[in-house]
């Protein structure tokens, strides 16, 4: 088992290097630092000196890969690639446009992001699996049919509508909760309730439908027929046999998104004014803060790869056949 | 007769190319019995055909909006003709007044007065603050109180017209398909009853809307006084291009790499798997954000590439399609690789190899046709997701050009309006409803196609 995990971890390294190279190419080769400087400075203030100063302040004035002017090992380290890209592997992300340390900012913003994303995830999973179970239990009835129709309709509604509509109705018209903002400690729950509710609501359509098909696949398997042939009542067949077996693909399937919960949700956080990583990313995109966007791309990929490894591990825990093959 | 110059935007080329290849594929399908049978099953599905009718209506709007031209400016005879900087489309010409009749600012649907009060000089009364009459909306009415009557009469006339036209059409269908009862009860091979019913609903909504749009702003006007109905029409093309061109862009890459990886295995397979795992590990929105930010820098540093603002917006739209395509081919590629791995072990492929048929010929003749159902299902399934994604991306500020009308830019411009007193709801509601109808139709159609092509899923 340990050897398996180590092998998976080693396999992640080339992928991370690939991600790093792609982001580097995207940010420094597609456009030269000069182009970025011109964009950031605006048309009015562009002078050759201003561009040089902008680049020097951010360390973009060095060569891309090989600095032949520097002595010894620093021919490789005194370059944009090493300083801006390779250093991300050790968690050094540099500074944002406003001069703050990106790594520290990320650390401070993970908490609020998780405070929204984790309850949304757990509650959403519980609600959608329960709904899917009910639909699958009443399969091939009018109830199931209209349930699926509702699911398709719900997944055809834009996520923006859930947020804008929900915020308007619940916070502005009914005044049940504050419209936006975030509080410290236990006081935060008032601000969390609405984003979590809307997050759960907007995921219901597609997830319920997807889990329903997983349940239905399970229903047609042989062990179900055996259980019925034994004379077990349908409720026992369903809630003891089918539910347990269907939870395996459902739970192993959602493992991959768990690490990504740290990243928060772009839309929810920006609409509700939550100081998490999602709103940080959106602000950076809108302010064209390339250093922050680059760091978020890298962190997102690391978290996704962690998710993949966790998925593999959870598969081997559930199904020993994979471990030994 | 005013002169005009035809403008061919790159996205127009792709749209018409797409239509041509769609027709071409249709001809090919008609020759292949299994595919034809699958499409017949789609044709028999009532939900599928009803949604197809809706999609077709959207497609017509999009196609009309994809024929562009520039009007010649009036100049002295003998001078070299100058053309207007504004690029128009056939749709603009058809809906004429909707585009030009702009109010000062917000006005509610069917309003005769502006949303905001203004200070007006009234002879005899001095200056008063009141809601001024609209310049165009309901301007033909002497007394705004007669609005309901006027709307009612126009609506009734157009409904009567629609009923006549629809009855004639239904009569033709009934004659050709063995009688009214057969059509009504759904006994025809093709789901005519669903098509006719949907058509009735579409006509009953669209024709009165059009009849009224000449005199009123049926969906109101936005902040700068532009008609919301017109914006909805213009958004359709953007949504269709995002939904269709993106898949078209990524399709050849995904199909080629997927089949090659599955068929040849070995180091080719490792390389392709590595490539898509790397691309897949970057969260989609972030990769798109990074790529779009970089594209903006490229576009801003080369203003000389674009003759008109429309061309710049158009190229940006296509670039967005490419970026979305690059980030979304991995899923299909993996599916195709897995399926090819299974197919290449089958007897008929091994027999072909034993006969010495070349690898590329085997791929083309024996593997590709057996993967078509996966490709078609992916194509229709991706569409709705891409339309929804466009709105989110435009909201974040990494979507289409801000000058290009799309559902996303409409929502983005209107997002503060719910905070006003009284509430300005019509832009948002119109954009969300139009998007909902398009996406719902696409989802239902995708389900019908999947059911017909993939017998495994019940």
From TrEMBL, chain A:
ABC transmembrane type-1 domain mapped to chain residues: 110-314
GO terms for biological process, alphabetical: transmembrane transport
Localization annotation: Cell membrane
Statement: the UniProt record of this protein carries the keyword Oxidoreductase: no
GO terms under cellular component: plasma membrane
InterPro entries recorded: BPD_transp_1_N, MetI-like, MetI-like_sf
Record membrane topology: Multi-pass membrane protein
Keywords (A to Z) from UniProt: Cell membrane, Membrane, Transmembrane, Transmembrane helix, Transport
Domain of life of the source: Bacteria
Transmembrane segments: 9-30, 114-138, 145-171, 191-211, 246-267, 296-318
Family recorded in the similarity comment: Belongs to the binding-protein-dependent transport system permease family.
Protein name: Peptide ABC transporter permease
């Amino acid at each position: 088992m340990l050897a398996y995990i180590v092998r998976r971890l080693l396999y992640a390294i080339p992928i991370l290097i690939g991600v790093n190279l792609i982001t580097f190419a995207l940010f420094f080769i597609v456009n030269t630092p000069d182009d970025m400087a011109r964009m950031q400075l605006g048309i009015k203030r562009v002078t050759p000196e201003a561009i040089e100063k902008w680049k020097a302040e951010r360390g973009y004035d060095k060569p891309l890969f090989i600095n032949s002017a520097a002595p010894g090992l620093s021919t490789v380290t005194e370059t944009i690639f090493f300083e801006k890209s390779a250093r991300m592997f050790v968690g050094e992300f540099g500074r944002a446009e406003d001069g703050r340390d990106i790594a520290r900012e990320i650390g401070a913003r993970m908490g609020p992001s998780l405070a929204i994303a984790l309850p949304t995830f757990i509650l959403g999973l519980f609600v959608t699996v329960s709904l899917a179970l009910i639909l699958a239990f009443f399969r091939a009835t009018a109830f199931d049919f209209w349930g699926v129709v509702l699911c398709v309709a719900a997944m055809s509604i834009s996520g923006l509508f859930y947020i804008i509509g929900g915020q308007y109705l619940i916070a502005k018209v009914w005044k049940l909760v504050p419209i936006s903002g975030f509080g410290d400690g236990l006081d935060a729950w008032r601000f969390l309730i609405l984003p979590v509710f809307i997050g759960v609501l907007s995921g219901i359509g597609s997830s319920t439908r997807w889990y329903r098909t997983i349940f239905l696949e399970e229903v047609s398997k042989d062990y179900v027929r055996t259980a019925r042939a034994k004379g077990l009542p349908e409720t026992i067949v369903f809630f003891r046999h089918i539910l347990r077996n269907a939870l395996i693909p459902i739970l192993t399937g959602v493992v991959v998104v768990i690490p990504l919960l740290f990243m928060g949700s772009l839309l929810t956080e920006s609409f509700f004014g939550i100081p998490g990583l999602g709103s940080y990313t959106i602000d950076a995109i809108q302010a064209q803060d390339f250093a922050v966007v680059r760091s978020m791309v890298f962190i997102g990929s690391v978290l996704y790869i962690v998710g993949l490894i966790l998925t593999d591990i959870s598969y081997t825990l559930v199904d020993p056949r994979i471990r030994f093959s | 007769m005013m002169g005009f110059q035809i403008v061919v935007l790159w996205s127009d080329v792709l749209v018409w190319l797409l239509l041509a290849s769609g027709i071409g594929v249709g001809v090919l399908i008609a020759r292949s019995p299994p595919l034809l049978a699958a499409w017949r099953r789609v044709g028999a599905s009532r939900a599928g055909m009803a949604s197809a009718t809706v999609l077709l209506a959207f497609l017509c709007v999009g196609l009309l909006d994809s024929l562009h031209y520039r009007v010649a400016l009036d100049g002295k005879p003998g001078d070299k003709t100058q053309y207007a900087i504004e690029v128009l489309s056939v749709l603009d010409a058809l809906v004429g007044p909707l585009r030009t009749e702009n109010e000062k600012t917000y006005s509610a649907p069917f309003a005769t007065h502006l949303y905001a009060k203004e200070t007006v000089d009234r002879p005899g009364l001095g200056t008063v603050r009141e809601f001024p009459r609209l310049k165009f909306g309901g301007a033909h009415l002497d007394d705004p109180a007669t609005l309901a009557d006027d709307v009612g009469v126009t609506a009734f006339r157009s409904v009567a017209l629609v009923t006549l036209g629809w009855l004639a059409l239904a009569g033709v269908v009934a004659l050709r398909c063995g009688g009214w009862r057969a059509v009504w009860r759904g006994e025809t091979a093709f789901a005519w009853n669903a098509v006719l019913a949907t058509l009735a609903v579409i006509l009953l909504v669209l024709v009165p809307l059009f009849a009224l749009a000449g005199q009123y702003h049926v969906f109101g006007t936005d902040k700068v006084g532009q008609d919301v109905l017109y914006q909805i029409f213009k958004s359709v093309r953007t949504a269709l291009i995002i939904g269709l061109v993106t898949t078209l862009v990524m399709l050849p890459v995904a199909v080629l790499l997927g089949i090659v990886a599955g068929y040849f295995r070995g180091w080719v397979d490792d390389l392709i798997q590595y490539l898509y795992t790397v691309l897949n590990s970057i969260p989609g929105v972030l990769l798109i954000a990074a790529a779009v930010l970089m594209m903006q820098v490229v576009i801003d540093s080369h203003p000389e590439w674009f003759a008109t603002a429309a061309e710049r917006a158009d190229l940006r739209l296509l670039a967005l399609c490419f970026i979305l395509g690059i980030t979304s081919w991995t899923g299909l590629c993996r599916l195709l690789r897995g399926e090819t791995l299974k197919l290449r072990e089958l007897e008929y492929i091994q027999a072909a190899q034993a006969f010495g048929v070349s690898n590329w010929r085997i791929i083309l003749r024996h593997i590709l046709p057996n993967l078509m159902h996966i490709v078609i299902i992916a194509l229709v399934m991706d569409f709705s997701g891409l339309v929804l994604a466009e709105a989110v991306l435009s909201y974040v500020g990494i979507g289409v050009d801000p000058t290009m009308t799309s559902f996303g830019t409409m929502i983005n411009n209107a997002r503060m309006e719910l905070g006003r007193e009284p509430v300005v709801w019509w832009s948002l509601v119109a954009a969300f409803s139009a998007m909902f109808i398009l996406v719902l139709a696409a989802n239902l159609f995708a389900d019908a196609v999947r059911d017909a092509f993939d017998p495994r899923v019940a």
